[in-house]
Backbone:
């Protein structure tokens, strides 16, 4: 049986202040969380010496700070925005993306190119014309994805909120147009017509044939064989699924964003962090923050850890409603398209192919990892049983809010 680790003494605040001055390196995810910086410097061990080149260390640190601090991003971008004789090269050296409004210009220009290709494909009549269908539709798909994929990436990672919003608008515009194309019967008819002509099929390369088969599958998934009314409903549902899904991700928040606690309940936590979060004798702890994660690893009182854990994992009602709407619309979309569920619809052309295959894989993976996981949990449970403070905290089982705390205890004992 493992021996319990000794009680961690409280460190002198003045020593911690001195340490923080000399090693002020931390990952701060929110400028509003005043305790985040203190929490990041509260680790109790020195990291091993790094043999990575100093330049790489600098690049890694700069990259973290760009995403974590709006002020660092502003300073960095002001120094690096000019290229090619002082002219702004734009994001990804795209001449349109020199300012947020450029996303609309980029999407608009691409949209016109797409419409010209669509008009050409719909007008093809001769065999020679139809030989170009696969290549033209592949070009059409490429143009759409250039805007959709780029905008989707930028709206997820760019530090500037204005750029995020502009990218989101460009994404929505092109995504809706793509859904309209997927339900355009004329394109599907032209593709099938070309594929059924032996001379055309023989003239296509292996890649062109593969493109044609993929596009025909995409059309079949998009309610192409339904009535015009149902196809319009498909477009609306698909757009709503994308919009609500994005809102769900962007608005993730806890039901209780802040917890008010007395400092005595946070015994075991770094006193400097507690002091940073204390106002008028009350500790205000952001439930989704680095200080909250630190509390789960260090606070001795199990009831306090439980309160923090539950607050951290209880979503706001508004976002739960978004999730319910998203699941409902996905189910309706799948039913309209003739699929048993949204999972079946999504996986039909993927490697897994069916939800049952995914479940089988996950079950097998869980079974394979279970012995190791059970061994590690048993080790943590032994530490808990030896902890006198755990007497009133379900002493014979390891709760979710116990895992980080006793893992930290175990790691501390291994280092000593």
Residues:
């Amino acid at each position: 049986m493992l021996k319990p680790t000794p009680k961690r003494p409280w460190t002198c605040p003045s020593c911690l202040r001195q340490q923080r001055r000399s090693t002020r390196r931390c990952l701060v995810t929110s400028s509003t969380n005043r305790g985040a910086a203190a929490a990041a410097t509260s680790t109790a061990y020195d990291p091993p010496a790094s043999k990575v080149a100093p330049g790489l260390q600098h690049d890694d640190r700069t990259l973290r700070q760009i995403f974590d601090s709006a002020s660092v991003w502003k300073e960095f971008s002001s120094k690096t925005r000019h290229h090619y004789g002082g002219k702004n090269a734009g994001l990804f050296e795209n001449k349109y993306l020199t300012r947020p409004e450029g996303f609309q210009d980029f999407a608009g220009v691409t949209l016109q190119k797409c419409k010209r290709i669509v008009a050409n494909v719909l007008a093809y009549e001769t065999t020679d014309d139809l030989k170009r269908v696969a290549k033209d539709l592949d070009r059409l798909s490429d143009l759409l994805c250039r805007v959709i994929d780029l905008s989707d990436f930028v709206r997820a990672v760019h530090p500037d909120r204005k750029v995020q919003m502009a990218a989101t608008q460009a994404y929505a515009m092109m995504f809706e147009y793509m859904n309209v194309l997927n339900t355009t019967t004329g394109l599907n008819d032209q593709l099938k017509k070309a594929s059924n002509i032996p001379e055309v099929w023989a003239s296509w390369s292996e890649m062109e044939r593969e493109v044609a088969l993929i596009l025909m599958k995409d059309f079949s998934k998009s309610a192409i064989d339904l009535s015009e009314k149902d196809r319009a409903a498909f477009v609306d549902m698909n757009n709503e699924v994308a919009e609500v899904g994005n809102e769900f991700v962007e608005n993730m928040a806890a039901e209780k964003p802040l917890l008010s606690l007395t400092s005595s309940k946070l015994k075991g936590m770094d006193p400097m962090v507690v002091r940073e979060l204390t106002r008028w004798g009350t500790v205000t702890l952001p439930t989704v923050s680095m200080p909250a994660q630190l509390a789960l690893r260090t606070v001795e009182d199990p009831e306090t850890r439980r309160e923090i854990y539950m607050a951290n994992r209880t979503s706001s009602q508004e976002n739960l409603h978004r999730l319910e709407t998203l699941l409902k619309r996905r189910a309706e979309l799948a039913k309209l398209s003739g699929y048993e569920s949204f999972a079946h619809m999504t996986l039909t052309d993927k490697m897994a192919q069916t939800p049952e295959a995914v479940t089988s894989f996950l079950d097998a993976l869980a079974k394979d990892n279970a012995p190791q996981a059970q061994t590690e949990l048993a080790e943590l449970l032994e530490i808990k049983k030896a902890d006198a403070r755990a007497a009133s905290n379900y002493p014979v089982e390891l709760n979710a809010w116990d895992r980080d705390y006793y893992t930290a205890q175990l790691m501390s004992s291994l280092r000593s």
The radius of gyration is 28 Å. The CA atoms of residues 217 and 349 lie 8 Å apart. The chain has a mean pLDDT of 83.
